[in-house]
Amino acid sequence: MLLESLNDDLIDKLIVTITDKFIIGIIVLVCGFWLSRKLEIFKREQNKILDMDRVLNNKRIDYLEKQLSNFYWPVYLRLEKDDAIWMLSDKVGKHVEGAFILPNHKKVVEIIEANIHLAQANDELFEQIKLYMRHVAAYQTLREIGIQTDPLHYEEPWPSKFFELIEKETKRLQKQYEELIRVTQRPLGKAI
């Protein structure tokens, strides 16, 4: 009897222990499954964020490329050439004006007219662009009708800050472009 009572107690304790362990195992399994699902969802969300960052960076790079290649660099380089030739015009004669300066101005105006939407100019630069356009229009018109007077005499002065502002904006955008290229060439981060 004592042996049977001991066996019954042992069997009861064994059943309770096995049941406890089974229930704990089920709880751990369910919690592990739930945690695993939450971790997968988190990883997917992190990957979506990284993908969106890459897409946004690529779109920004594309737009900066358009700004630089279709507006800022062409205008800036033509203004550089114009400045160099203008310095020589007194030495080499007025024929440079018709052969180079006026056609160069015409090309700058065409670039501005076709791509002004890419400029995203602040008020100061936009004002200088307008003054440049007015100056060139007056300059070309005066030459076409045979008047050799500077447009300044007709209240269309050269926009004194135009070159400086174009140069500054070109360099600023180029720096942004190079930084974005540098950033996108390295991993943005690793998803967990």
Provide key terms for this protein.
single chain; 192 residues; mainly alpha; 4 helices; disordered C terminus
In short:
The protein has 192 residues and is mostly helical. 84% of the residues lie in helices and 0% in strands.
- How many β-strands, per DSSP? 0
How would a crystallographer describe the biggest sheet? none
Instruction: Give, in order, the helices and strands.
Output: HHHH
How would the global form be characterised?
Answer: rod-shaped
Please tell me how large the radius of gyration is: 37 Å
Strand proportion, as a percent range, falls in: under 5%
Q: What's the mean pLDDT score? A: 88
Question: Poorly predicted ranges (pLDDT <50, ≥5 residues)?
Answer: 187-192
Question: Mind explaining what this structure looks like?
Answer:
This protein has 192 residues and is mainly alpha-helical. It has a domain at 58-185. Helix content is 84%, strand content 0%. It contains four helices and no strands. Helix 1 runs antiparallel to helix 2 (95-119), helix 1 packs antiparallel against helix 4 and helix 2 packs antiparallel against helix 3. The longest helix has 91 residues, at 2-92. It is rod-shaped, with a radius of gyration of 37 Å. The chain starts with a helix and ends in a 7-residue tail after the last helix.
